[in-house]
UniProtKB/TrEMBL annotation:
Transmembrane recorded as keyword: yes
SUPFAM superfamilies in alphabetical order: Pili subunits
Protein name per Swiss-Prot or TrEMBL: Prepilin-type N-terminal cleavage/methylation domain-containing protein
Parts of the chain that traverse the membrane: 21-42
UniProt cross-references to InterPro entries, sorted A to Z: N_methyl_site, Pilin-like
Record has Transmembrane as a keyword: yes
Keywords: Membrane, Transmembrane, Transmembrane helix
Lineage start: Bacteria, Bacillati, Cyanobacteriota, Cyanophyceae, Desertifilales
Superkingdom field: Bacteria
Organism of origin: Desertifilum tharense IPPAS B-1220
């Protein structure tokens, strides 16, 4: 028994705690494989959350413009644009009363930013867009004093800057009484 205790005591003194090189390399390889699998899923999740938040903001902006039109018994509109802020492209929105056509909407100080990773998809947006003049490039949706669309029906489509072709969120103004609805992905590309 004495020899056995002496032997285990010597083993404890001579052993070094830690991992072998093979164990360490296996752990690093496992972490690498797991991160390679998880990274694309995480990016997709983040992009979807950014688009959903932007769609929600645009939807409630349209609802607010519609509500203000009824409340004030005057025409209101939501305006959406792409602009550059500090050298980066960004989509913005604002709601305001309908101004005369020669009023420069770019000078409003009520523009609010969407997430910088969200852009407006011009190929799938059918709202009225100012073709020229001082308000060139601004999309708009107007509501009259009843909260009904004042002019063109249509949709605004938002997409991710990283994957424009696959992820879309849109808001439709689809009836003459001002019904708003949201869609995503393929339903946004239908004409």
């Amino acid at each position: 028994m004495k020899n056995y205790c002496k032997l285990t005591s010597n083993l404890r003194k001579n052993s070094v705690a830690g991992f072998t090189m093979v164990e360490l390399l296996t752990a690093i390889a496992t972490i690498g494989v797991l991160s390679a699998i998880a990274t694309p899923s995480w990016r997709t999740f983040v992009e979807n959350q950014q688009l959903n938040a932007a769609q929600e903001r645009a939807y409630y902006g349209l609802r607010e413009a519609q509500s203000q039109a009824k409340l004030t018994k005057s025409n209101w509109q939501m305006s959406i644009r792409e602009t550059t802020v500090e050298g980066k492209a960004i989509a913005q929105w604002t709601i305001h009363p309908v101004y005369p056509s020669n009023f420069n909407l770019h000078q409003l100080n009520t523009w609010q930013n969407f997430n910088p990773e969200v852009t407006i998809d011009p190929d799938h947006s059918t709202l009225y867009r100012h073709p020229s003049g001082i308000n060139q490039g601004i999309w708009r949706m107007q509501f009259n004093h009843h909260g009904h669309p004042n002019g063109q029906l249509g949709r605004i489509t938002l997409s991710s800057r990283r994957s424009k072709a696959s992820r879309h969120r849109c808001i439709f103004t689809s009836t003459l009484i001002g019904t708003l609805r949201t869609e995503r992905d393929r339903a946004c590309r239908k004409t």
